[in-house]
Amino acid sequence: MQENWVSVMFAMAGGVVLSIGNLCTQYALAFAGLSVTEVITASMTVVVGTTLNYLLDDKINKAETLFSGVGCFLIAVCLASAVHSSNAADNIAKLSSLSRIEDLESRNDTEEKMKFGTADFLAELEKKRAIKVFGKNTFVGLYIALFAGVCFSLFSPAFNLATNDQWHTLNKGAAKLVVYTAFFWFSLSCFVLAIILNITFLYCPVLNLPRSSVKSYLKDWNGRGWSFLAGLLCGLGNGLQFMAGEAAGYAAADAVQALPLVSTFWGVVLFGEYQRSSRRTYVLLASMLLMFAVAVVILMASAGHRKMDIVTCPETLQKTDS
User: Fold this and answer.
1) Pick from 119, 126, 117, 114: which is nearest to 275 by CA?
2) Are 132 and 208 in contact (CB under 8 A)?
3) pLDDT tens digits for 34-85?
4) Residues 265, 161: Cα–Cα separation, whole Å
5) SS3 string of the chain?
6) Which phi-psi region, left, alpha or beta, contains residue 206 (left: φ > 0; alpha: ψ -120 to 50)?
7) What does the alpha-carbon distance between residue 98 and residue 94 come to, in Å, rounded to a whole number?
């Protein structure tokens, strides 16, 4: 580690920005919803991160194909913003049918289950939220999602630098970090910072959340299993992304950002996002997903092959000289 500590720092820096990005995403989800948040963060990751990785990887990917995909991702971000604004306007129109949100609190709890997308459903959902979003600026979620996207766009280039040393920070003869070693330091820094940030926000909450404590956190295991599963899947996905980056270039490996196509399905089917929205919202949503799917396909088509370092043995040199 004494010889390649700079590479270790790059790997740990990647874990730090990933941890910050993950935390910001949790807040953005409350304001912008699953579909829009994932599209914005993933598209920002590609627009910024893929460009950086392309330059770091000595341009091994097909530029004309790669940046066509990046352009499609950028269009997807703009469409995601339009979807969010349109859906927010739809929700305001639905809630206008209720004289006051507080009227719902006096209703009988045995009332028939509310249907997705209705005004009553939205008001009931607001009551259950830890983060209250009614009356907040509709662009708050977009700003948080954009910041999360910037964080996500930096962790892959940092890991790329940790394993390939494009900036020549290592001393001559020092070994570069292999993917698995770099991934260990990456995961360690992400884990440690996540603990620090979460404990900090337990005692110093933001967005008018109630103050809590570590003791209360450890007592509440409601939904904790899903959290552990999400973390394991995230770690597995990152590991596979880094392995693919070493083989085909980190720019093309950003095709892993196809995740919003799946998250939108969960958001619509399981969580009732965009139910009973306007036709305009549905058209924008379909356009956003179509553009995103096209971008992923184009990005995968830009894959290249990394040139391996050739190490010549002294014995080979002697035979050549003779």
Assistant:
1) 117
2) yes
3) 778 887 888 788 888 888 988 888 777 788 888 888 888 888 878 887 887 8
4) 35
5) CCCCHHHHHHHHHHHHHHHHHHHHHHHHHHHHCHHHHHHHHHHHHHHHHHHHHHHHCCCCCCHHHHHHHHHHHHHHHHHHHHHHHHHHHHHHHHHCCCCCHHHHHHCCCCCCCCCCCCHHHHHHHHHHCCCCCCCCCCCHHHHHHHHHHHHHHHHHHHHHHHHHCCCCCCCCCCCCCCHHHHHHHHHHHHHHHHHHHHHHHHHCCCCCCCCCCHHHHHHCCCCHHHHHHHHHHHHHHHHHHHHHHHHHCHHHHHHHHHHHHHHHHHHHHCCCCCCCCCHHHHHHHHHHHHHHHHHHHHHHHCCCCCCCCCCCCHHHHHHHHC
6) beta
7) 8
Rounded to whole angstroms, the Cα distance separating 300 from 65 reads: 9
What is the C-alpha separation between 21 and 155, in angstroms, rounded? 9
CB-CB contact of 153 with 18 (8 Å): no
Tell me: the pLDDT tens digits for 226-246?
A: 889 989 998 998 999 999 888
Token look-up 């009973």 returns 276
